[in-house]
Predict the structure.
Amino acid sequence: MKKYASRIYLCLVFAILYIPILTLMLFSFNNTESTANFTGFSLEWYIKLFNDENAFIALRNTLILAVSSSLLSTIIGTAAAEGIYRMRSKWLKNAVNSVTNVPMMNPDIVTGVSFMLFFALLVALLGIDDYDSIGFGAMLIAHTTFCLPYVILSVLPRINELGESLTEAALDLGCTPVQAFFKVKLPNIMPGVLSGMVMAFTLSLDDFVISYFVSPSNFQTLPLLIYSMTKKTVKPDMYALSTIIIITVFTLLIISNIKSFKKSDKVRRKKGGKA
């Protein structure tokens, strides 16, 4: 009974997770705008999507912002994690860790309003007449800031796990501290760095609340475009775009898993050969 109950529970969890996604994908091929009845298979919404300039501009803006903020937050976050690790004072290290976690604990609406007030004050102090002139910079700063804690949280445990033995060995062999970091420490903590970057990219790609308060009028991301449609109705070509994104992410995950499997299989074979 326990075996069947666990299988039923697992099926229910997967159903709750994936039925909405599959429904969206199904209705992206519907030949009408109805979200209640599937009346026939059609590629009409995909054709309209590729002819929709606003959707592609929003997608381009979203990707530019997500890539830029994830790269910037990864560089700053990795450096910050190394700095936190090297702090001698235990009290100061705990205080910095607590402060770092604040953006993650804060509701997005609080963070969004805070950034809006900050940039409004900055524009007033600098005497800038047009907010749009610093709009992308403001969006980049906001996205980088709320992504930073996630990068630090991903990199710092790797640094703690690695310890100082490899770095000290590199220093003994003639490396400078900078060379020891880039040649020895960074390659060993790279899985944490990459996972932090992917998390930052995903968070930036998905963000709506903070972007809503900070975005200028001339820079619209995909979540903002979709939200603006909800005031009237979300067009089915957005279902088509969502389906393309889902399939792309799913394909990348499959490729990543295949590569990981091949790598672990090679390591297993080498160990078997040595034995």
Summary: DSSP finds eleven helices and no strands in the chain. The mean pLDDT is 83. The longest helix spans residues 236-274. Residues 121 and 206 are 27 Å apart (CA to CA).
